[in-house]
## 1
Amino acid sequence: MYRLLLLSFLVLQGLALMAQENGYAREIVKTLSSEAFKGRAYVGDGNKKAAEYIKNQFQSIGLKPIEESFAQPFDLKVNTFPSNMSLKIDSLELVPGQDYIIDPYSSSLKGNYQVLQLKMKDLLNEDILKKTINTGLGKVLLVDVTKFNPKDKKEEQLAGELLNVLKYNPQVPLAAVIVYTNKKLTWSTANMQAAKPSFILNKELDLSQIKTVDIQVSARLINYTSENIVGYIEGSVQSDSFLVAMAHYDHLGLMGADTYFPGANDNASGIAMLLTLARHFQKYPPKYSMVFIATGAEEIGLLGARHFVEHPLIQLDKIKFLVNFDLAGTGDEGIKVVNGSVHQKPFNELRQINDRLHYLPSVQKRGEACNSDHCLFHQKGVPCFYIYTLGGIKAYHDIYDRNETLPLSYFDNYSQLMIDFFTQFE
């Protein structure tokens, strides 16, 4: 009877602790993805606000800076859209982020323009393409890609390359290009500015009725100083060797004055994982020293990670293992481990922990992929994983990646799996 009561107490205590961690993670995600942080990018200094917030969390947890400060600054260029943005098809006002997105390389443009129309397949007709370029001076080209069925990959690639010529080549005299699609809108960032603006539009419209388009866009290519936030916990046995947990804190920011991209799953959830692990290991120091890196400017080309590996605050060859956390907020179908097939032994250990304790529905592996910050470390020979959750909501790089719809349903189990993995690492 006593043993049963003790077991029940320990189970309830564990559930209470996990609920507490979930509450902490939820607060992190809610804060970082809130409107006050402006999408954690470069208009309105949302990026700097996020960095300061994470520094304060590091300090509150009790992490130590490796040098004098938690911050490792670096410079970048970024194309921004800081002012009101408007796109009207004839008299219909479209909703930014919902009906359309602007190409991140776009430049400024204001005015009302006549519309030319092509279907994507028309780009492969040399006569039609030349006529469009010759008659397109000062007009907006609308390209319908919805029913394009290329006969092979080469044809698809050629059509895409020709579309990019129309969008980006300064010698093409179009005022702007609009790509009409029925696919999901997915935005990104850019560190250069093209000669003209372009848009992707997916609102259901009768294209045959479109005559004019009114465009109001202000773009600014700016210099900006971002930073990596780096703290550590000294190891209890081998303090000169390191385990590293990493996640990027930046996101896409503002598209115009009023439309922001919250980035709850991408990657406020990864920062929540980073801070959850930091809180645990501050109380229970691991065998090796543990370094926590919140990287900046991942979305614009892995710039924070690149700066770190080129100016490392610790010896890269002293890193026993690194795990990069991105998209940590779902998990209905488990997790995917990039480099799992490269580093088979640690992957097997991770999977065995999960098989034994049933934290997640699955632990799946894949090969190399240069799709997040781990890639720069991998290229330097640092053993590493990049892990992201599977299943659940599909919001990604859009205005719907919000705290309110991010489940975090497997977050506690996922964080406990990673605590076990780091704790047992040899």
## 2
Amino acid sequence: MTGLFDKELARLNAVHLTRKRRQVAPLMAPADLGAQDESLRGTTYVIDGQARLSFGSNDYLGLSQHPALIAAAQEAAARYGVGATASPLVCGHSPAHEALEQQLAARVGLPRALYFYAGYAANVGTIPALVGRGDAVFSDALNHACLIDGIRLSRAESHILPHADLAALEAALQASTARRKLVVTDAVFSMDGNVANVPALLEMCERHDAWLMIDDAHGFGVLGERGEGTLSYHGIAGLHGVAPQWRGRLDRLIYMATLGKAAGVAGAFIAGEPSLVEWVMQKARTYMFATAAPAIVAESLRAAMRVMLDEPERRDHLRALQGRLREGVDAARLPWTLMSSDTAIQPLVIGSNADALAVMAQLDEQGLWVPAIRPPTVPEGTARLRISLSAAHTVEHVDRLCAALALAAKSASQAVA
């Protein structure tokens, strides 16, 4: 029977779609850095035994190695131990989890939040809790896999719509006779870096009596006036609460964000009206039947919330790096397209799978780790380097990346000639 898998693996390899898992660790622990080069913290990793400057992680604010978060985890371990021991509805919901949920709700300007141990679990559990047979879900074609899987598990009627096509969505909502209607979208699309038009989506859902669920995995902590995420970016809600023009209009919104990216730790949360959040808590199987994340994770996240507010310069620096990268790419006259993005995600579209892997390998030879993303994660013919910037990067790091890309482009042109 295993011969079948050998053949299928060979087929994947032939079209350059085989994935390789690598061993990755920080070059040195933060406690050992001392007076050494601080630019190593959160940027330089040992990947399969070799030191590499990484542009591959989602640690957008550089918090995963922040001393305040590490100290919070150590203190929490001494108080709570290292395991939650049971699901949140049994005995896994600690005072740390409760305090975290209150902070998260306040941060995004919504009444109540519910913390999940993982983002995939949040989406796969929440969507089936909201809709089922006889209902309809309207999903952007570029939504993340966990949203797609949540829709499938719900058994609701599924409508996959062209990316960011508001006219197509409006027509589908208008034609639907489903009992309940749910629009689902990434807030920031993880492979393109563009931001969904949330105000237009909310207004459309209001017109057609639908709910809107947004996945703000790549916006929370980065976008918005103080890192509150995509709702703040669009002037809808944030630390200031709900903007006047949106008050009374957010009862149809389900907000979700992950906490293993800009927040630097792990887990995710949903937020919205109290009764909606309570319903998800009562019905989401991934919440009810899974062991909770340890309290040390919750306390680390509470520390991350404080750092996000106390160190706004991290977001300012990240935005400056985005501009520096675009300047460097323009100056290098690369044969590839850097997609438009107002986020830390800066996709460089190469084209074929083989070419994207070749450019990644050339950067690797120059000591940089920039992962190539291929189908089915992205459409055929759009394989790309997903450049992830972090506040931990320096201007010199970005300049080094641009120089390495220029050399890779020169090598590619010589190979064609």
## 3
Amino acid sequence: MKLLAATRSAGKQREIQRILSPSGFEIVFPGDVGLWETAAEAALELGESFEANARRKSEYFVSLSRMPTIADDSGLEVLALGGAPGVRSKRWAGASGTPLEVDAANNAELVRRLTGAGESRRLARCRCVLVFLPSPGAVPTVSEGDCSGRILQEPRGAAGFGYDPFFFSDELGKTFGEATDEEKDSVSHRGRALRALAISLLTACR
């Protein structure tokens, strides 16, 4: 099955390709099919939940491409911050620039907000919601994944993207920034959501 993965994030693209391709899916991204970024896309992630944002992105891209489309929305939820940054994870600090510059600003804001916080207040989880639409107007398939951990005071590792160097995974015993691709994919929120979606799609095709 050929799927359009509706993301322009290079980090997410690598993860989606790694996780779904072994199951036999052919993955393409907006740029691969001539869907260049427009100002309208900025308004797609203004919802109040991960599912709302993923649904809007999926509906937008499936209508443009007429291809089976998956869209993800994901983020970090910190207990002591009332679940923030949550759905605002990507743009939390309000920074612009390259992806690396935006990540650096978001991580600086995270560190600032948790200054002086003890271990119990640094508990966090990463969440991902995926919405699949086979065609415009179709009934969506929704899959979710999460993983628990805590936020460190200092970054560890340079792998991954986003908040990965600060997110210490309970299951791995290391940050996502220190983990190999295989280690991260095995426990990450996106890895779990993608595998759940793959099972649903493969089962439906039988």
